Amino acid sequence: MNLIVRPILPRFGAEVSGIDLTKPLDAETREAVLAAQSRWGVTMWRDTGLTDETHIAFSRQFGHLELAPAPSGKPYRHAHRELFDASNLDASGTISTNELVRLHNRGNQIWHTDASFMPVRTELSLLLCHEAPAAGGETWFADMRAAYEDLPRSTQERIAGLRARHSLWWSRKRGGFPLTDEEVDARGYAVHPLVHVHRRSGRQALYLSGHARDIEGLPRAQGEALLAELTAFATQPQYVFSVSYAPGDLVIWDDLCTMHRGGEFDELHHRRDMRRTSVREGGSAEASADQFTDLYRAAGVDLHKPRR
Predict the structure, then answer these.
(1) What is the rounded CA–CA span in Å between residue 72 and residue 54?
(2) 2-27: per-residue pLDDT in tens?
(3) Which CATH superfamily is domain 4-299 in?
(4) What contacts 237, CB < 8 A, 6 or more positions away?
(5) Cβ(260)–Cβ(209) under 8 Å?
(6) HSE on the CB side for 191, CA within 13 Å?
(7) The dihedral of CA 234, 239, 245, 250: what is its sign?
(8) Backbone angles phi, psi at 40, to 5 degrees
(9) What Rg, from alpha-carbon coordinates, does the chain have?
(10) pLDDT at residue 283 greater than cutoff 70
């Protein structure tokens, strides 16, 4: 094993190379990959040669994989539901013109943490590029550990013990999806600590997300203001970098110590084909094996039916 690590920021993000991700990892190499992931939060792997099948096989070595939501009465674009579709393409592989889908996906351009709206969270996200647009379409990452550590002590004390309420539908509404506040509230929330200890590194981290609606126990306006204040602090330039892609590039991020957002691009004229696997926190069996489908069905949301 010859793992090569090149830091991107002094405390956050690294380009990593030196091993073949298409082959099974031995125990030593797997632990080295996890150690790099824990140290840097985001790792970028260029020109991996991964296919859908080897992407899934590589990801499985780190824990239980979530299933992408099953579309109601529509074909799924991929052969494997372990692949979440982060593209602007429809099931036939052409650029989607479905306005509801586009508005739903627009929420991904808000700073967020994957699956913070679930009671059982995502720990690792592994995003593989199959096709990149000519311009834009990058991913921006923010360091939630360094941001917490740099907060004034008075702020750390002010937010200790607070819990935020998260909803997928809140971030979708923020992105322009046609929902009312009442509809968001009716779909319920997942509640998570605003600050937690990152298990693998032992460092404290903010757990922020564009899915976070408000703070449990605080007036809504006060909670919204606090979340906006912390997000603005955590996304200052010293905590942030972006990754641009070429086909075959893989980026892995730890959702328990990072936040991210998608960059804008001309989504009606340029293709962006990105596919993500999601490793469930701690391999927990507490949630349904198909919890993302359950979420959409419970909400009664079908992106392929026009709203009246």
Answers:
(1) 27
(2) 899 999 999 999 999 999 999 999 99
(3) Clavaminate synthase-like (3.60.130.10)
(4) none
(5) no
(6) 7
(7) negative
(8) -105, -15
(9) 19
(10) no
Give me 267's structure tokens.
Answer: 């989504």
Amino acid in the structure at residue 254: D
**Residue partners of 281: CB distance under 8 A and separation at least 6:** 120, 121, 122, 123, 256
Give me the amino acid identity at 144: M
Tokens at 114, concatenated: 């994957």
Domain parsing of the chain, residue ranges: 4-299
In this prediction the pTM is 0.94
What is d(CA 15, CA 5) in angstroms, rounded to the nearest whole number?
A: 6
Amino acid type, 17: S
HEC string for the chain: CCCEEEECCCCCCEEEECCCCCCCCCHHHHHHHHHHHHHHCEEEECCCCCCHHHHHHHHHCCCCECCCCCCCCCCCCCCCCCCEECCCECCCCCECCCHHHHHHHHHHHCCECCCCCCCCCEEEEEEEEEECCCCCCCEEEEEHHHHHHHCCHHHHHHHCCCEEEECHHHHHHHHCCCCCHHHHHHCCCEEEECEEECCCCCCEEECCCCCEEEECCCCHHHHHHHHHHHHHHHCCHHHEEEECCCCCCEEEEECCCEEEEECCCCCCCCCCEEEEEEEEHHHCCCCCCCHHHHHHHHHCCCCCCCCC
Amino acid at 284: S
**166-224 pLDDT tens trace:** 999 999 999 999 999 999 999 999 999 999 999 999 999 999 999 999 999 999 999 99
